[in-house]
């Protein structure tokens, strides 16, 4: 990967769009990114990392905080990074936009929208590859590195440079896992453990299932189960053989009982028939009486229609008599009504004369109504126009006042805008610069105080560690002496232990004699082997603690020396400021307050300008409204004059009492209603007279019809009475009898008829049944069914008992066969699980550390990778240190399962020994870290599938080198350049500007922002 071009806008200190063309530096290979402290050199590396991964290059800066603080909300933060990879050109772009959202409450909330995209240049134009979260994945896919790998291999940021060299084993393990993705080996070992545990659990379940199955059938094993199954089958066969005779005996007893039951049932039926005959004989007299009642009812039923006809004729006669009486009363009333109507009709002549007078009055009023209406309308229009004239004049006066107010407000706003700009907005860049410089001073003072506390703490910690090391050393010496004394005692007691194992007649393993007259005696106080082993572990534990304490002491001593040197640097830097920390803090607070006021004023400036623009627009609008209202007032005055003349003309044509058109119209309406009422009364009188005459004629006709109807009803009633008497005598019903009581109702007649017919049927049936049964049983005797039933019950009990035994044996056999099948399946599954468990458990133990090296596979792989990195790094370190130093990985077993560590130490060829990396000086530490970075870059490149790393950016360390070491470091960088890589160095060291001719020069502008330019010879 080679950078091609990068463009930054509103990113870090780069407010305006700043473009850096790296292609101008290709021919030089090695270039310098230079500028004053805090001007924005590292921001260039942050921009690359942000464009690719959405994160800054180091771990101390959050990409979301990289937006330029001086950028207005309308200016978008944008980074565009073009890079060359494998002959293809790619572009990664990311941006942040500030957008204002208005809430329902009226408040405004600022939100940030993010954009990201990736393009490929196809020779003619940029082609979009992806957007959104996929952009980061595309960067990983193209480069072959994650963000952390990119920061360790291509961009070496501030604060991260020495991390791999000085980190302890656990942190170094995490770094290597991130770079090489070796967590898959941990996952592999964990997967084996989980698989082994899963198989072991399944195996335990199989064993438990076997025990449960055997327990369910009360057997110890499958062999015992097979023997019991064979025994059950033999017992079942014996039961089935004896059961055949029991079934035959039950069938015979059951047949005898069924025959006896059938015969007994016929004897019982004969007894029941004879008993029923006796009961029917007792009912004969009662049934005879019911036959007579039924015959009388049927005769009365034949006479009943004539009785009904006579009753209906009598009702019709009564109704005709009542109708005749009503008609006579109606005729008298109609005659009286006709006389009253005639009298009313004679009196309606006066009402007709009044009606003609009303019609004339209405006509006169309608003639004057229209002129009156015109007068009222003109008067209303005159009032409206006068009101319009007054309103227009009042509004014109108000608009004139508003014109004066807007003119004064506009002049006031213009004055405030000018004052705000001169007092605050123009000072904003100066205040930003002052705040940045003062913040750097305050941070330096804070760092100095923190470093002083750190050095003090390290002094105390180092002293404690020295005392701890001395105590551990003395304890280790004492315990080791005890162990050696115990070993000597055990060696002296070896003859006694051998004598304890001698037996008469058996040869001594030392002298070969088969007789042992004087065996060796025991040494007093000799320890046992177990006690010796315990003492050995104590010595080893103390030795391990002593080594750890020594390593920690060396590390703390290195940290102390480094912290002390840094403290001196910070103290010198603070002395240059010429002020105290409190003064710097007070100045910073003052500048921050002024800056906040200026920023608030800058934000307020557009609002004030908008207010001025609105005021100017309102002034123009008020002037236009004033002119319009003045025209409206003049027009209304002309209309008022014209309407006043028209009102005077109409008033002359209308009498004074008639000038209220509404009152005239109301009077006309009242008169018309009176006319209509009188006219309706005359019509109603005539209608009532005609109605009365018609009612009199109808009453006369009704009287005549009612008289005829009564005469016809009397004739019908007489004929119906004669017919009824005739039919009663024919039916032989005595005169005066209650015909309706004799008829009964239909339900009672049906019930009597049904009861009589049922009695006759049952009598005939019982007689026939008794005769048939007596004939069938003439030669039979009544059987003893109870004895036969007991015989059958006994045979059934014996048969059911045998069936129960057969079912029990069959169920037991079925259960035994099922359990036997399940045991066979479980045994097969158990055998398969045992084979699998043996395989997985063996592999898991090997990969987990139970191997000759006592190293888990994950640690083993990390060790191999670190060995490759160290081997590659030593090539560079040997050259940089002129053969003196080399990096060495510790192979000392760790605690617990004995895994090997990942700590690094430095081999010193001049002293012929090894020492901790923290004992190196600042310059030596830089060279070792640089060599390790070069080695890491080579190894990661090899492990990344042959991806070539064409660029390297280094962002720290050169300021700690002396002239000779700087020459060596520059030589190493020159060799890397000659290999075809593009090397970028970030530094403000003046000597490097002379050694490296190609520059990217970063400068801070007067307004506090930054700019960058590529400078080549």
Describe the protein in words.
The protein is of the alpha/beta class. It is built from 21 helices and 15 strands. The strands form three sheets. A six-stranded antiparallel β-sheet has the order 2-1-4-5-6-7, with helices on one face. A six-stranded mixed β-sheet has the order 8-12-13-3-14-15. Strand 4 and strand 5 (88-102) form a beta hairpin. Helix 7 (222-282) crosses helix 16 (746-776) and helix 8 (284-346) packs antiparallel against helix 14. It is flat, with a radius of gyration of 65 Å. It starts with a strand and ends with a strand.
Element layout with pairings:
Blueprint: E1 2-9, E2 18-21, E3 30-34, H1 41-53, E4 77-85, E5 88-102, E6 108-121, E7 126-131, H2 134-143, H3 147-153, E8 155-156, H4 163-166, H5 169-180, H6 183-216, H7 222-282, H8 284-346, H9 349-423, H10 428-492, H11 494-500, H12 529-577, H13 581-653, H14 661-730, H15 739-743, H16 746-776, H17 785-848, H18 857-880, E9 885-889, E10 904-908, E11 913-916, H19 922-943, E12 951-954, H20 963-978, E13 982-986, H21 990-995, E14 998-1004, E15 1010-1015
Parallel strand pairs: 3-13, 3-14, 8-12, 12-13
Antiparallel strand pairs: 1-2, 1-4, 4-5, 5-6, 6-7, 9-10, 10-11, 14-15
Helix pairs in contact: 6-17, 7-16, 7-17, 8-14, 8-16, 9-13, 9-14, 10-12, 10-13, 18-19
